[in-house]
C-alpha cells in the first residue's frame, strides 16, 4: 500500500475503485495510455490462491480473449488456470442436444473457462511487467465520501486498520483528487451509491449453487447445459482433474442443498444431473443469488461505472464479465486521445461511452431475461416453444451459426 502521507492531496488522471477482473484490466489499458492512475482495491489475492481448489470460474468468450491478449494480460494466465472448450451443447431434458462446435464458425475453439483470480492476477502481472511508475495501488482503505467540482472529483478515504482502533476517522483521512473516477467495485458499488446513482432491477426466484468436483476422467473440452423443469444444470470443464457443476434451482432448494455435506451433494448430483463421463467427488461449494441490476446512469459528471457496478445480469449464458471487458475496451478507446485536463473532451467521451454501453448491456440483459423465462418455465406452451426452437436451430445451419457468433462475442 502506498503510504498515507504520500497520498495527501495527490492528483491523478484516473482513480479506479475496485481492482477485480474488470478494474484491473481497466488499469492496464489506461496505464498503457500513459495516464497517471491510482487503483484502490480492498485486497489483492496472493498468487498461491491459484494452487487452491478452484471455486469461481468464468467462461471467457473469443472477443474477450482477443482483447485481453491485445492488452498483454492473457499470456500471464497459466495453463492450469484456464481450460479451452471447443464445443458447447445445450438441450431440453430428454431431448436431442444442440451442439455448437468451433468448426461451425471456422475457429480453433469457442472460449476458455478461467479461474476468476487468475484473470485478476494476470492484469496485475502485466502492470508489474510494464514496470511503469504512472500507476499506484492502494489497499486496505475505506472510502468515506465522494465530491465533485467542475475541475475534479475528490475521494475522502481513511485507513481501515486505523479505523478499528480510532473512532475519529478524520485524523487519518486523506483527500485524493482526480480528473476521472472509475467505479469498478462490483455489484454493491460504493462509488455508485456515494455518487447518488440509483439502480433498477430485481432478484430472480432462482439461485445457483456452484460445485467443484475432482474427477477421474481426462479434461473435457466441452461445456454443456441441460434445461430441467427446476432450472438448468451445467458442466464447466477445468484442468488438473477439476470441473465445476452449476445447479440452478429455487432459492429454498439451493439453501437446502448448500447445507449438505460433500458426500450428500454427490448423491444429489448423481440423481439430478445428466450422467457425467466418469467417477468424481464433490470438493467445494458456493451458493449465489441471481440478480438483475442496471445503474440508472453509467456516468455522472466525472464518475463513470464499468463492469458489475454498472450492470449485473443472469449468469445463465456466462456473459457478465465479458460485458465488463467490453466496457473497458470502449471506455479506453474513447479516452485514448483525451487530454484529461480538457473538460469538454473528457465529458464528450464519457457521454459517448454511456450511450453505447448502456444500450448494449440493456439488450444483453433483456436477451438473458427472455432466455431465463423461456427455459425456467414448466408451462406446456413454453416447453413446446423451446423444444421447437432447439430443433429449428439443429436443422438450420445459418441460424445456428448466428447464435454461436453472438455467444462468442463476434
Ligand atoms: C455464479 C456466477 C457465475 C458466473 N459466471 C460467469 C461466466 O461464466 N462468464 C462471465 O462472463 N461472467 C460470469 N459471471 C459474472 C461475473 O462473475 C461478473 O460479471 C464479474 O465478477 C464482474 O467483475 P467486476 O470486476 O466488475 O466485479 P467484481 O468481480 O465484483 O470485482 C469488484 C472488485 O472491487 C473490489 N471492491 C469492492 N468494493 C470496494 C471498495 N469499497 N474499495 C475497494 N475495492 C472494492 C472487490 O474487492 C473486487 O476485487 C458469473 C457470476 C456468478 C454469480
Automatic annotation (TrEMBL):
One of its GO terms (biological process) is ubiquinone biosynthetic process. Its cofactor is FAD. GO terms for molecular function: 3-demethoxyubiquinol 3-hydroxylase activity; FAD binding. It holds the Pfam family FAD_binding_3. Residues 12-358 form the FAD-binding domain. Keywords: FAD, Flavoprotein, Monooxygenase, Oxidoreductase. Pathway: Cofactor biosynthesis; ubiquinone biosynthesis. Belongs to the UbiH/COQ6 family. This is FAD-binding domain-containing protein. The lineage of its organism: Bacteria, Pseudomonadati, Pseudomonadota, Gammaproteobacteria, Alteromonadales.
Amino acid at each position: 500500500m502506498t503510504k498515507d502521507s504520500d497520498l495527501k492531496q495527490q492528483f491523478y488522471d484516473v482513480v479506479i475503485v475496485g481492482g477485480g477482473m474488470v478494474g484491473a484490466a481497466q488499469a492496464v489499458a489506461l496505464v498503457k495510455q500513459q495516464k497517471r492512475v491510482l487503483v484502490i482495491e480492498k485486497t489483492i489475492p496472493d498468487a498461491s490462491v491459484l494452487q487452491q481448489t478452484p471455486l469461481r470460474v468464468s467462461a471467457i468468450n473469443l472477443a474477450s480473449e482477443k482483447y485481453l491478449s491485445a492488452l498483454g494480460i492473457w499470456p500471464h494466465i497459466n495453463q492450469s488456470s484456464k481450460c479451452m472448450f471447443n464445443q458447447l451443447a445445450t438441450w431440453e431434458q430428454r431431448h436431442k442436444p444442440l451442439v455448437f462446435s468451433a468448426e461451425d464458425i471456422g475457429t480453433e475453439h469457442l472460449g476458455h473457462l478461467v479461474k476468476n483470480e487468475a484473470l485478476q492476477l494476470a492484469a496485475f502481472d502485466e502492470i508489474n511487467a510494464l514496470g511503469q511508475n504512472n500507476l499506484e495501488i492502494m489497499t486496505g482503505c475505506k472510502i468515506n465520501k465522494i465530491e465533485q467540482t467542475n475541475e475534479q472529483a475528490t475521494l475522502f478515504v481513511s485507513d481501515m486498520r486505523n479505523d478499528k482502533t480510532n473512532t475519529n476517522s478524520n485524523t487519518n483521512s486523506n483527500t485524493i483528487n482526480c480528473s476521472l473516477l472509475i467505479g469498478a467495485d462490483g455489484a454493491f458499488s460504493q462509488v455508485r451509491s456515494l455518487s447518488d446513482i440509483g439502480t433498477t432491477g430485481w432478484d430472480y426466484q432462482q439461485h445457483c449453487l456452484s460445485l467443484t468436483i475432482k474427477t477421474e476422467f481426462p479434461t473435457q473440452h466441452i461445456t454443456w447445459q441441460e434445461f430441467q423443469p427446476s432450472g438448468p444444470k451445467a458442466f464447466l470443464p477445468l484442468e488438473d482433474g477439476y470441473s465445476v457443476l452449476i445447479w440452478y434451482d429455487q432459492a429454498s432448494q439451493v439453501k437446502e442443498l448448500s447445507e449438505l455435506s460433500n458426500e450428500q451433494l454427490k448423491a444429489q448430483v448423481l440423481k439430478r444431473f445428466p450422467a457425467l463421463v466418469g467417477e468424481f467427488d464433490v470438493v467445494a461449494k458456493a451458493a449465489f443469488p441471481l440478480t438483475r441490476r442496471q445503474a440508472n446512469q453509467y456516468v455522472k459528471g466525472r464518475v463513470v461505472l464499468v463492469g458489475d457496478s454498472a450492470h449485473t445480469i443472469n449468469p445463465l449464458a456466462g456473459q457478465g464479465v465479458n460485458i465488463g471487458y467490453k466496457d473497458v475496451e470502449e471506455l479506453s478507446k474513447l479516452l485514448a486521445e483525451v487530454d484529461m485536463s480538457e473538460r469538454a473532451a473528457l465529458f464528450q467521451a464519457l457521454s459517448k461511452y454511456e450511450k453505447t454501453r448502456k444500450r448494449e448491456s440493456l439488450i444483453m440483459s433483456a436477451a438473458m431475461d427472455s432466455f431465463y423465462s423461456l427455459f425456467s418455465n414448466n408451462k406446456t406452451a413454453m416447453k413446446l416453444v423451446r423444444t421447437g426452437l432447439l430443433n429449428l436451430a439443429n436443422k438450420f445451419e445459418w441460424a445456428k451459426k448466428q447464435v454461436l457468433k453472438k455467444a462468442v462475442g463476434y
